[in-house]
Here is the input.
Amino acid sequence: MNLPEGVVPAVRRMKDFEDALKTSSEYIIFLETRLSQLKSLVRHAKRNDKKVLVHFDLVQGLKSDEYGMEYVIHTVKPDGIISTRGNIISLAKKHHVLAIQRIFLLDSSALTTNLKILKRSQPDCIEVLPGVAPGVIEMIQQETDLPIIAGGLIREKKDIQAALDTGAIAVSTSEHHLWEV
Here is the structure.
């Protein structure tokens, strides 16, 4: 499966969904959705030639377990799963969908802990937040040899360029004005 590249729209509000579909990005990310609307949103996105990544942890009404994963994979049919939880990443890989581990870089201790988690979960890709830490992005890429998506606190074009220049393959952002950079 192709990995996301460039700027990937992260849809937080449903009013931004149609605009995300109009972007040149191959992928879109669903954040903070409700389980009851997820299947129709994914179907609509795919009809518009978009690949869909679902942030599993942020789907309201969905339990983060194997049964929840089976439901999402077999009924909703996303192209990939994003999660902070290693067990969800393992389940996504078991079901042969793109598995993206989201990590938060709060301090050096969190970085060390996250590197250990990444070695156990073996995701296909890592989403690093905040994405405005280019030096750390470069170091994580070298340490893990995994593709990195930069996300969180991306507010300006220069943030996107800095992340891409230091090795991120893509930048996810819910900042609507940055979707077509």
User: Anything to note?
Assistant: The chain has a mean pLDDT of 95. The first strand starts at residue 6 and ends at 11. Helices lie at 17-21, 35-47, 66-76, 86-94, 108-121, 134-144, 157-165. The two ends are 24 Å apart (CA to CA).
